[in-house]
Specification:
The chain has 5 helices and 7 strands. It is α+β, with helices and mostly antiparallel strands. A 7-stranded mixed beta sheet has the order 1-2-3-4-5-7-6, with helices on both faces. Strand 4, helix 4 and strand 5 form a beta-alpha-beta unit. Helix 1 crosses helix 3. It starts with 6 loop residues before the first strand and ends in a 5-residue tail after the last strand. The relative contact order is 0.15.
């Protein structure tokens, strides 16, 4: 199979069905803080009225969205304007095929070259080894463990707090 060609674009309110599909898979639900059975209408509202400083990116193959990354900045917090927070999900049938790397590359470019963010943060479940490998590939390091961070599959689970620092910013 040929390596797919990924394109990155900004999510629009018309992408609600695609977002619902991305977050409907068991793997995507298990790896995020989303609840099962996402509503298209909820996604439509979230995409139509994004908070200031948020950037929702989609990774597409042949115009079909197969993954999402949210890059959230803190414009209302003067002491944390240098920080971005990342959350992402790849549709179950596209995990492990390069879509996550394409999204992370786009997010790093945006953070470094357009938003001048010197610190990027994320949380990842401690048992999500593929995601941890992806984040490490992009320079993220584990800063600590947050115990009993979320409730998933009938039990509390831990996350790693990870961050990427860019030294030459400004």
């Amino acid at each position: 199979m040929d390596k797919p060609t990924f394109t990155i674009r900004r999510a629009e309110s018309s992408d609600a069905e695609a977002m619902q599909k991305i977050f409907s898979g068991p793997k995507a639900i298990r790896g995020t803080l989303q609840l099962p059975y996402p509503s298209i209408d909820r996604w439509r509202k979230r995409l139509a009225e994004p908070p200031e400083g948020s950037f929702n990116l989609l990774v597409c193959v042949d115009d079909e969205a197969v993954g999402q990354l949210g890059l959230f900045t803190l414009p209302q917090n003067p002491r944390r304007r240098h920080v971005g927070q990342i959350g992402m999900a790849i549709r179950d049938d596209w995990q492990g095929k390069g879509a996550g790397s394409a999204l992370m590359s786009a997010a790093m470019d945006m953070a470094d070259n357009w938003l001048n963010l010197s610190r990027l943060e994320l949380e990842v479940y401690t048992d999500n080894e593929p995601a941890i490998r992806l984040y490490k590939k992009f320079g993220f390091v584990t800063e600590g463990t947050l115990y009993r961070f979320a409730y998933r599959d009938g039990q509390f689970v831990d996350v790693f707090a990870m961050a990427r620092l860019r030294e030459n910013s400004g």
